[in-house]
Amino acid sequence: MAKHKKRKLQNAPKKPSKPGAKATPQKPSKPQKLEPTIPFHAEDRILLVGEGDFSFAKSIVENHGCCDVTATCFDSQVHLFEKYKPQAVEHVKYLEDEGQTVLYGVDATKLDNNKSLKKGELFEVVLFNFPHVGGKSTDVNRQVRFNQELLVSFFRAATPLLSPSGTIVVSLFEGEPYTLWNIRDLGRHTGLEVVRSFKFQADAYPGYSHARTLGNIEGGGGWKGEDRDARSYVFRKKGGADVQARAGADVGGKRKRKDGDDNSDEE
């Protein structure tokens, strides 16, 4: 809600400065914080792919009011709880207590063959945060190729699960090697088009923490993914229904419209 501010008099006379008086230095204005873009609405049927410790799933239910969430991970339940002990157990319990669906052992490249996903309704949003194949190779070129193959297979498997106006949202870190993946081209190659991209702001999801593919760091220290610059890309089927209003919402859940939103980038 906008704050009411007193209007300053534009033509108010200025007091003459005294000879030799020093000018009062002005404090630099603080940069205005960007309002987070949330690429879903609370009432959407949402599929989360490749969850780590399920902290993101918990956050969108708890803080954004999402009520129809299917959260999936690649690991088995036993392996997941071992890797992300103790928070994964707590997050999953919260989701199940809230009536949300949690599925284990779900391959992002074979979503369209998963019986549990195929038997339900189509999804308005399929969201994959920070996909990565893990440490398959120390060679950068091979890692890039492996991750490109992952995304292409994911796009192809996720598309049949989309509603007519549905969107696929993928978040990646900024900079190399992630920019080398050329995610926009990968989407186009699989029959998708980019609706928009925007800065991913982790603090828009209270309680969310980036989970490493290998699991928790002993002692809890080290690198934190949520502190890195990241960007989300929103895709739709080529020639699909207009999803401009669906592709972004503000924190309050209202639809967000800006000039030039369609097929554009936001900082």
From TrEMBL:
Residues 47-212 form the 25S rRNA (uridine-N(3))-methyltransferase BMT5-like domain. GO terms for cellular component: cytoplasm. SUPFAM superfamilies: S-adenosyl-L-methionine-dependent methyltransferases. Transmembrane segments: none annotated. PANTHER family: FERREDOXIN-FOLD ANTICODON-BINDING DOMAIN-CONTAINING PROTEIN 1 (PTHR11538:SF26), PHENYLALANYL-TRNA SYNTHETASE (PTHR11538). GO terms for biological process: rRNA base methylation. Residues 1-36, 239-267 are annotated as: Disordered. This is 25S rRNA (uridine-N(3))-methyltransferase BMT5-like domain-containing protein. Residues 12-25 have a biased composition (Low complexity). InterPro entries: BMT5-like, SAM-dependent_MTases_sf. One of its GO terms (molecular function) is rRNA (uridine-N3-)-methyltransferase activity. It comes from the Eukaryota.
